[in-house]
Amino acid sequence: MVIDLHDLLSKNPALVFFLVLGLGALLGNARAGSIRLGATAGVLLAGLVFGHLGYQGPSQAMEVGFILFMYSVGLQAGPRFFSVVARDGLKYAALALVTAVTAFFLARGLGEVCGFSNSLTAGLMAGALTSTPALAAAQDAVRSGLARLAEGVTPEAAIAEIGVSYAIAYVFGMMGVMLCIKAVPRIFHTDLAGEARVAARERGMPEEGEEEAALAERRHMIRVFEAKNPRVLGRTLREIGLPGLTGCVVQEIKRQARVFFPDAETRIEPGDRVAVAGEVERLEELSDFFGPGVFDRELVRAPIETATVVVTHADAVGRHVSDLHILARSGCFVTRLVRAQIELPPGVDVVVERGDLLTLAGLKSRLRELVKTLGHVERDIVQTDILTFALGIAAGIVLGKFTIRLGSVSLGLGMSGGLLASGILIGFLRSLHPTFGRVPPAAAWVVRELGILFFMAGIGLSAGGSIVSSLAAVGLPLFLSGVAVTLTPFFVALFFGRYVLRLNMALLLGGITGSMTSTPSLALVTAAAASGVPALGYAGAYAFANVFKALSGTLLMIF
């Protein structure tokens, strides 16, 4: 049996589509030194190749991907979008805003000078900033009729122009930020690792890497000591300050055959058997602190357990880890902090935000009580609330249909803005009421990644047919303009953050990668800093950057 591959691909758009996804993901694994192309760029390039060869994917796949991605971006931003009151939070929002505004006006100015259409200009900005939300918003402005198009230009042609311009500017947009990240420490003669250590000390964070932190988490155990040392007898646990001195925590006390949970005002009496939890290395030092180690089956009967908690409780949101008194009050450890799929160093001075995932270690009974004061256990919610998810998307689509006319100009959110707004609102309400609109983090990640990859595959396939002719017509001016729109906002944000906001350089570079929505560049910053500290800046700026750039993409098509 002979298979005509060209005929097979021509008659099976679904086959073409998933080949683009698979081959793009494979291409995305390619590395040049420490720089990895990434699945998003790989799928875009694979789509361009197949589109140039004349193959097309399913007609609705790109739109479905666009809807899922934009709504998921809103869901991710929602829990913390209305509560940017944490330390440095407003600074990161300002950093993202300065980046977006600089890129907007520069792209508009270059478009006027070079004679680019609105479509080429919007795609230029989106590609130079590697901003899929900006691309989606610009194309949606055309579909919804909000865009201002030149006479004789059809919506289909405008959408194709946006995709082509995005593809031309995207490659340097991705690589350029990485190159800048590598160059900045040399230009400013900055010891990035040293800056990260300073920021870590200021925020009470451990300086060890993530692997060491994970290893420390596994070494937590309980040992029992008999209180005989005069330095602790008659003193309260608050006065002793064991967590601050050693990082260890008193879990239980056995006094005259009675076992109880102590609080900060509990006094140590002679003969008390004190169960202490902590890292093995630190526990070994406590024989001289309390008294000799003893074996007591009743006190070591329960092992240290872990639980991952989604922070939703109003009393916990906006407070530093140290203010939660997790160690002293409940005898539990914070071993991991994840925000927007980015792992952050769980230092005592880190501000806890709505939707954060805190991994805690402690006795099961004490963990259960602590969870009630923070939020809910992540594993308790394993199903997605499909009803709210679907109706939230429907509400976003309807919201995007509303427009306001100002003279000859129609203003509105468009589908992209409507989906973002709906997602933000649902995400915020979900953080207040965990049973409402529940979407487990793993499910949210899959939906968002599939959405962006479906959308990028569709962009590549639709733009591939005209990519060569566009390169010949405006390729060089468009590429050079893209270089300018990538580099200028980067350095404007760098000087603004350094000399106006006065951010620590490690945090600043993390914030800039978030403002430029460049996740691959974050890996370079954290590697250069030998620390997870830059991820704080990334998480602070990323959600706002997506929203600001989506608005910019729409505005470039309207005005």
Describe this structure in a few short sentences:
By secondary structure, the chain is of the alpha+beta class. The chain is built from 22 helices and 14 strands. A five-stranded antiparallel beta sheet has the order 5-4-6-3-7.
Write up what this structure looks like.
Strand 13 (403-406) and strand 14 (409-412) form a beta hairpin. The radius of gyration is 27 Å and the shape is elongated. It has 22 helices and 14 strands. Strands 5-4-6-3-7 form a five-stranded antiparallel beta sheet. It has a five-stranded antiparallel beta sheet with strand order 10-9-11-8-12. It has a two-stranded antiparallel sheet with strand order 1-2. Helix 7 runs antiparallel to helix 8 (155-187). With 559 residues, the protein is of the alpha+beta class.
Q: Report the biggest beta sheet as strand number plus sense, adding barrel if it closes.
A: 5 strands, antiparallel
Q: In whole angstroms, how far apart are the ends?
A: 57 Å
Q: What is the CA-atom radius of gyration, in angstroms? A: 27 Å
Global shape: elongated
Which structural class fits the helix and strand makeup? Answer: alpha+beta
